[in-house]
Specification:
mainly beta, 5-stranded antiparallel beta sheet, 19 strands, WD40/YVTN_repeat-like_dom_sf
């Protein structure tokens, strides 16, 4: 599996997509691709349990992170580009952050020792040095929070994130969802909108509306979470709902 960057079509290229860069590294299917605000970086998560951070910039070196024991289904950049939220199939959210090191060896050793003391675990791959453009630093795991709406009973099917409103929504196989705030990952709302899988979820421009697509029923549901009211609940599609 590969990630391919293309240049947007313009009149000078005859409105053709021009392949710009190819990034390899995953050994299994890619499950999600996320752009950072400003489109400087992209993150991909895969069934091989790894997350890769890359950039269309030619001088950027790909970063590999390993944070989950279950398949990650989505990853999102925070507004500052230095935070990544990773969601796996059982609803575990892992927050990793990038810190620019002034004195790389000493800073890295302190961060590694602090992590191992707090968790009792050996520091993993995300403590290796990488470059974000020209700034050396290291990735660290800030927190791991289980936020699955149904515990481990039903897997998380889809997730969405709004970096402006700092909210994330996780939808499950049995039609329920949980809304959480970031970066502290605290619960805002839990609701069931049916008994069928929510295959797709999207957030409105202001972060107030949540849209869910159910392929099995051909149904579209729009929920206003602040007032806790339905904006739309329509079952009029004859084929599977793939995106909203």
């Amino acid at each position: 599996p590969t990630l391919v960057y293309y240049k947007s079509p313009v009149i000078m290229t005859g409105w053709q997509f021009i392949r710009h860069k190819v990034v390899k590294g995953h050994t299994d299917d890619i499950t999600h691709v996320a752009w950072a605000p400003g489109s400087q970086y992209a993150a991909t998560c895969s069934k091989d349990l790894s997350i890769h951070v890359s950039s269309p910039e030619g001088h950027y070196r790909r970063t590999d992170l390993t944070t989950h024991s279950k398949t990650p289904i989505a990853c999102f950049f925070g507004a500052d580009n230095s935070t990544i939220y990773i969601v796996d199939r059982v609803g575990l959210v892992v927050v990793v952050t990038y810190t620019i090191a002034q004195k790389t060896p000493a800073t890295w050793q302190r961060a590694k020792a602090s992590y191992e003391k707090q968790t009792g675990k050996k520091a993993g791959k995300y403590f290796k040095y990488h470059k974000i453009l020209s700034k050396k630093g290291y990735w660290t795991m800030e927190r791991r929070v289980k936020v699955s709406p149904d515990g481990e009973t039903y897997p998380v099917y889809s997730a969405a994130y709004d970096h402006k409103a700092n909210i994330m929504v996780l939808a499950t196989l049995r039609g329920s969802f949980k809304l959480v705030s970031t970066p502290d990952i605290t619960e805002l709302q839990v609701l069931s909108v049916g008994r069928d899988p929510l295959d797709s979820v999207a957030l409105g421009a202001k972060g107030d509306w949540l849209a869910f697509g159910c392929a099995r029923l051909g149904q579209l549901v729009v929920w206003e979470w602040r007032s806790e009211t339905y904006v739309l609940k329509q079952q009029g599609h004859h084929a599977g709902v793939q995106c909203v």
